[in-house]
Design a protein that fits this description.
The complex is a heterodimer of chains A (327) and B (258). Chain A has 327 residues and is mostly helical. Chain A has helices spanning 2-28, 36-51, 74-94, 100-120, 122-125, 147-172, 175-185, 187-192, 197-223, 234-246, 251-270, 280-299, and strands at residues 309-311, 321-323. Classes of the chains: A mainly alpha (327), B alpha/beta (258).
Chain lengths: 327, 258
Amino acid sequence: MTYYLTTLAVYAGVDMIACLALSLQFGTSGIVNFSFIVFQAAGAYTAAVLSLPPDTANGGFQQYILGLEAPFPLPWIGGAVVGGLLALPVGLVVLRRLRSDYQAIAMLVLTVIANTVITNARPFLNGAAGLSLVPAPLAAQLDTGAVGYQYLYVAITAACVVLVFLIAQRIVDSPYGRTLRAMREHEVAAGALGKHVVALKMTIFVVGGVIAGLSGAILVGFIGLWAPATWLYPETIVLFAALIVGGRGNNVGAILGAVLVPIGFFEATRFIPPFGPPGLIPALEWVAIGSLIIGFLWWRPAGVLPEPRHVFPPTSPLGTIPARGRR
Amino acid sequence: MSAGPAPRPLLEASAIHRHFEGLRAVDGVSIDVLPGRVTGLIGPNGAGKSTFLAVLAGTLPASAGSIVFDGEDITSLPPYQRARRGLVRTFQLPSEFARLTVLENLLVAAPGNRGDSLIGALRGRRYWIGDERRLVERARGLLARLGMAAKESDYAGTLSGGQKRLVEIMRALMLQPRLLLLDEPMAGVHPAIVGEIAAYLEALRDEGITILMVEHELQVVDRLCDPVVVMAQGRVIGRGDMAALRQQPEIVDAYLVG
């Protein structure tokens, strides 16, 4: 039971971090990043190959690059850096010229391409079988099988959630965040007011990539394996569903969405007694996720916790006091 | 053109062309915008006025021609760099930031806020709150002047058409522009507010802000604009003050028939 709960807690933390990053991109800045999961995967693979021994170990049953056995926290930092670096070429290709609806399509296609390439290029990251036996952080120093280690992992994950939340909060509440929201509302008008729209998008795309990479690194360190099947494009859709339910552009909403959708929803369906042909329940889960998105967009498009309205105090303007936003 | 003792033009556009796959929307237009004046740009629908304005602001690149702003060739500069030099446009269609409040619409346009960069934002509120306070004060001054103070915390998307126009003009003014390009500022505005906006533009002119405006409301043009440039089918067909233009039958024809 402890193991179940700590696993759930780590997954929740990873989803919260991912949702915060996606909220910065999609909620605040209006970038429909349908390739989000690729950046999480990049972070996970990077952390894996940084912490794994060379691929001749374990009888050479898997093939991969690097294998540096780097000590913690280098694999996590590496994962975050690679997530950000990957955002540069992707952003430069996708965000500069294409209109936003085409950007979304391009990113979706990118996910499919990336997944197919990694699946089929075995020497790079072990292909379809993926990487396993990824050492947990501090595995050499601590007994990773102990309950105490589980709690430690949850604590480190929680610290990362807090850090990412504070960063996201500082961005969203600042004049810079206001500029990002203006770009989201009307890109051409923002450009006409002196905002360098491409630079803004690129910056927030990279920031989101860094955070996504970190989330992947945290996850792979905990579960010890990472394969193409874990980062198919629907995984991004789940995160979008979480944001739409929780409230995009609201960091607390992103946290809430992460708890409600990827964790709450999928965990709840675990306890449904099996019925019908095999595979029916997972299929119905996707139907339910889709319905959830459509339902919220229809009846409550701003989500449970909408983006706060920034109201300024009347006499001595000490800063923005976010009040609960109206739709 | 700017003959005799006239001051140096703030903006000189020479032989501007803008083609859309064979359609010559702007076909060799040259104008000088003199400082401290409101220059009017009139003409029938489809004359290329808005396209010309968009080329001046950089929203659309010119197919040919050159634009010199305050002595600097800005022909190949992107829109945001033109805005930073003081050449600021508004749009024919409402272009407010709908889910930002009225006050935020103004604040977002203001340059020189230390918190308006990623690094500045990450350094936290203390780093930028001074700039923010100063700009809030300035924005509130503008809002009060136009009777919009009570609306400052409303989302701009909920305003009426005329109020949105005002917000867009105030937003542009937060950049302290040297040349304001207005694309039909009275379009979709309730007649009662038209006079108010016109009076405000007059006041801006008297404060030394140069304006180039596309406008259909001839009463507004009569009141504000001197000189006036008439366009039809992508070309300039006349220029001068309104009284003189009214005497030229071919211009009256083109404008009424167009």
